[in-house]
Amino acid sequence: MKCAVSTGCVVNVSISHLISISICKTFMVFLLSTFKMTAYAVMENYKHGLFSVFFLLYLITLVLNVLLISVIHQNKQLHQPMNVFTCMLSLNEIYGSSALLPAVMAVLVSKTHDVTVKWCMAQAYFLHTYASGEFCILALMGYDRYIAICSPLHYYSIMSYSKTCKLIAFTGLYPFIVFTSFYSLTLQLRFCGKVMPKLYCVNMELVKNSCRNAQYISTVGLAILVLFIVPLLVMIVFSYTHILRVCRTFPKESQANAFRTCVPHLLSLLNYTIASLFEVIQTRFNMSHVAVEAQIFLSLYFIIIPPIANPVLYGLGTQTVRGCIMKLFIKNKVMTTVLAKTLTVDLLPFHTL
Fold first, then answer.
1. Where in the numbering of this chain does the G-protein coupled receptors family 1 profile domain appear (predicted)?
2. Higher pLDDT, residue 22 or 56
């Protein structure tokens, strides 16, 4: 009898122990299913004002890029390869901004500043493919400028409709295929850390939070990055080397026209290079000695400045596009004036009664 009681007690204790372990494991999984975005802590006292700033920046990004796409779409004279690539760039800007700013605003006003692991991994994918796509499109635009300036008489035969479609498909798919093949390594990780020291999620920080040493992912990532960037960089350098060589044979007026044609693209490349350097420095090096405010600016530059600057550069910096935008505003202004006069005339009898 005593033995039976004792056995029952042991069984009960064992069951209780197993239940306790199960509850603890479930609780730990729950805890580690989110990341704490620690960079938001310094913004707590200004979160409502910053929410308005980020909302305004997102709105400006959408308006500028949608306006540029609409103007190019509505004017048949702008249906040229360079302007089609410009539309691709604007679509990519909208894609990147939409992956970041709405999430930043949501986390900013939340009480815990936590994000789920799944969303964090998705956001990292969106932002990395945005950055890869941006460089791919800029390289393609450099090649287009090379053909336009160095072989102007054969431009439309070289940049035919068929070839343009193939280049668009390649530029759209290539960065996604390359990054997805690499990112599959990160998707297999389990995370024991739960701190994300940035305003958004990136692959390097996910790897740092891994339960095991995942240094190989960082090494593979660096190798793929080099293999991805070098061919595109060679294309850009090749294009502008030949452009400079050919421009030397042009008269001064033609040189000025060629320079004006290349200015928006060169400024976009410079902006992208600065943003990339900021991101690489912040991700790869110890930034503990740098003020948090400066770190936030460096991390946001990459995703905020280019999406606003590029539509301005290609909208106002390109003469034909600028002319179409001005016509659109003048047309809308005239229509508004006519509508106002019509309403005034219609309402006049009521005022005279």
1. 64-314
2. 56
